[in-house]
User: Fold these one by one.
Assistant:
Number 1:
Amino acid sequence: MAPNDSVETDGGTRGTAVGRRKAARYIVPVAVVGVAAATIGLAPALASTGDPDLPEITAQQLIEKIAASDTQQLSGTVKISTDFGIPSLGGLDGSFAPGGSDSGKGDSTADPQTKMTELASGTHTLRVAADGPDKQRVSILENAAEYSLIRNGGQVWAYDSKTNQAYHAAEDRSGKKPGHPAPEGVPSTPKALAEQVLKAAGPTTSVTVDGTAQVAGRDAYKLLIKPRQSGSTIGSVTVAVDAKNGVPLKFTLLPSSGGKAVVDAGFTKVDFAKPPASSFTFTPPKGAEVTEADDAKTEQKADGAGGLGMFPGGEGLSAGGQGAGDMKVIGEGWNAIAEISTPGGTGLPTKKSGDVPAEAQQFLDTLGDKVSGKFGSGTVFKTRLVNALMTDDGKVYIGAVTPNALVKAADNAA
């Protein structure tokens, strides 16, 4: 059993900081289609078969082990479960999803931005493969169907076998990469999720080694990351790290309120051999409807894709499409709150104003709670992880903090 040696990141040692920076730089971005801030635990993704007896290691050494990992080839099966405490999005027709059918353009069901909403809730099984930073593939396995997202150099293809629709984005002549989020842009595998957390770790974070585990038949150390501040909705993050090659194998995020994990993503099978070249090739099947990416529309979507904005320092706190002058951050670390000014300085549309149908207003009312304070009045929208306060005068306060913290931030800004 590995000792519970810790690294308190309140200045820490220079080696720890360097390790985190190297980790963010070297972790291979093998990612899957996921939500902006990402994905989990109706049940543990992987069952432990016993804690292996491994050599002792400190938290700093384990972070450095992740940083030193040069594994760029792998394939396997990942199980992802999400429980944000919001209604399942899988059954929606896409009209409320970013770029959904409400856009009036009849988006392809193969569009990655449309598909990613499905990973916001429930349990999903994915097959992943990677061969370096420019070749990745992820397939979401469904009942009698499969959705695949493939990147091969400057080409990105997505295909939905259920509807026989394909989506294509390509590098332009200037060498610009495909504007649509490529597979590595969405942090949903253990590796990509861990990368976000390690980049976020700072003075408000405690990092320890919390024993060992066996994941997908491989021995692993458990890196435990916890906020040192009160008021965050995040209780802890555990990353199971392959003891041999330093690759994160499992990621679990627990809420401070207790209960089931909010995010639980881990390998059930993994192979670090070079995947076949055929894994990264794609030709649309006969009769498939192919949609080419629209650059202008794509870039707008990419801005909104964000990352794990609920983590301290996460750029995902900024709202898609908002300019730098429209957003500022209140507080720091795990208690950081983004204050965003909505276009035109208006709050939520209401039934009274005639801006929304009665059915839509009823839906909004079930999601939010009315609050008031020095700032005036507004509505708090809650999940198990990220909460948001939208004031009636058009300000939005959002973060992985309690509703009371949002109200306090709005009061202080009034």
Number 2:
Amino acid sequence: MRLLFWSSFGVVVYAYIGYAAWLWLLVRLHKRPVLRERAVPFVSIIIAARNEEATLPAKLANLRLLDYPADRLQIIVASDGSTDRTAEILQENAPAVLPVILSESQGKATALNQAVHRATGDILVFFDARQSVEYDAVSQLVSCFADPQVGAVSGELLLETPSERPSGEALGIYWKIEKLVRKLESASGSVVGVTGAIYAIRRSLYTEIPQGTLLDDVYIPMHVARCGRRVVFHPEAIARDHVSTEKGKEFSRKVRTLTGNYQLLRLEPWLLSLKNPLLFRFISHKLLRLLVPMLLIVMLITSALAGGAFYHAIFSIEVLFYLMAALGGLGTPIRRFKPIAIASTFVVLNAAAALAFCNFITGRNKVWAR
């Protein structure tokens, strides 16, 4: 029991702290900077949209403010079987925007593929319809391709409260930790995935995405890495989003993302072989976190059964932690106490991982989720 407890504890600590510590050490020993230069290659901006009439006008207005030369920029938006005014809005904005209208919904992956087929740019820049991007976002992404080893570049997503301040909630803290890991991965080689709201790749490295794929922002960069190119994180290329105040929305997004990780293993079994140049990073960053919910249950049970005052104390601490998480679920006022907010968020994220596993084995994969 004690061996099982400490083995589980060790994996959990490594998944959230140990891997970041290893990357930090690797950066200190062998940092790999990225060559950046101002350049203006022809760029195709790719957006897949489904029922985005509420956000699309603001997004198109946002893109008109980009500082990139208009004659070196192509904007393609694919409407994936939208049932609202999305297709009409796109047609109204032609020819500044090249609309790709799919009469029936086939999923985001298919919409992206169809848009890329019409792209003429040397660099493909992928944005989502919901978030706004900084005026220099494209220029910042493109500057990294001056390095011939770079095949894909991820930008940074800033989560903000409705007051337009960076989120101080526990979810914001989790996202800061995630971005720290990505920065360390980039500085030491390649990141495992990119920020779906803002990333770019060389057109020659684009791989057709299988229909129904949930995580294009992992599928595409992993294929770029397989081609021997780096996937880097550039925090000066910025997209902004608001933390959703709609109950359950952020949880649904997390479930979708984690379900997508399971799906990738079925779609691309080479990810768990030596054909994957980022195998160690993929396991450490993506897969171990999927195991954490089960390991937490093992820790709770084994600490209860191990016997002795020390393990009884650990069991009591675990129970207290989960009680704090439960209190955090009661509402906003009590979540202002940061330990409760952190405990609640940690448990919710791992509940999302558990639900993602259930979704995967039962085939309940959602292709579109905002």
Number 3:
Amino acid sequence: MTLLSNVVRADASPQPDEGARVRPHSEPATACLPYRPESVAAARRFVATKLREWGLDDLLDDASVIVSELATNAVKTGCQTRMVVAVRRPSSRIVRILVGDGCRSMPAMVDVGPDRTSGRGLAIVHRLTRGRWGVTLLPLGKIVHADLAVAEPPS
């Protein structure tokens, strides 16, 4: 079994790219959710609402899978505080989904065999983001983030 993880040692919310234009209505959104299985569906609805507001309906399917996987992992940590789900636009070409929890255990991609029925979540996130995901450790937990590329508007 191979364990892999993308780790980010800096802030998971970088400044916008120089020269990048972000829509004026692209304010970030954050939600605090309890550590319960039904919070995964709430996280999906939360992210979908923000993406629709931004006119990024083409990202809904991938974002739904990503936030589901990250929120499910957070629920499984067994932490007793609240999970934080956020959506950001660090640039006009990136949507960043963040899920924070109160556990410092690092997520890891596991190379599982074809007979396993679980353990593929981070591999799916890795594939959907083309490897653009990572973890920021905090004093009392961590933030896992995943970046989706926004398609260039037709010229």
